[in-house]
Amino acid sequence: TMHGEDEESPENLALSDNVDKLNIQFEDAMNDMWQALMTQELYLHEAIEESTTNFHRKIAELMAKFVEQAQSFFVQLREISVHFSENMTEIVTRFISTKLALQDFEDVPNDLRMCMEDRDAILNLIAGMKDTHT
């Protein structure tokens, strides 16, 4: 019609039919592509959701195991601290008793000689050390 042709001419009708068919084919192709993309999006969404759920579950399990192990280690550390303190008390008491009984202060440093007479102070220091460690 732009060149002065008749809209109802057989050529224009044929071209119009072809354009209509192409338009329908294009819409069908677009619809098929939209359906395929929506299907892929649904699968992707489900996969991400499942991965996120698995990640949260694994992290929770790892955290629970970590806390359990940490608690176990701290129990062991407390037991070792108590054992160390008991051994230290026994050794210091035996050392002081032996040195006082024998009056053998030759190899005892001067700073320690002043403390040896006050056993309670030494035992309090050991107890304070145990509390600090705990």
Automatic annotation (TrEMBL):
Q: Which domain of life is it from?
A: Eukaryota
- Protein name, please? Protein phosphatase 1 regulatory subunit
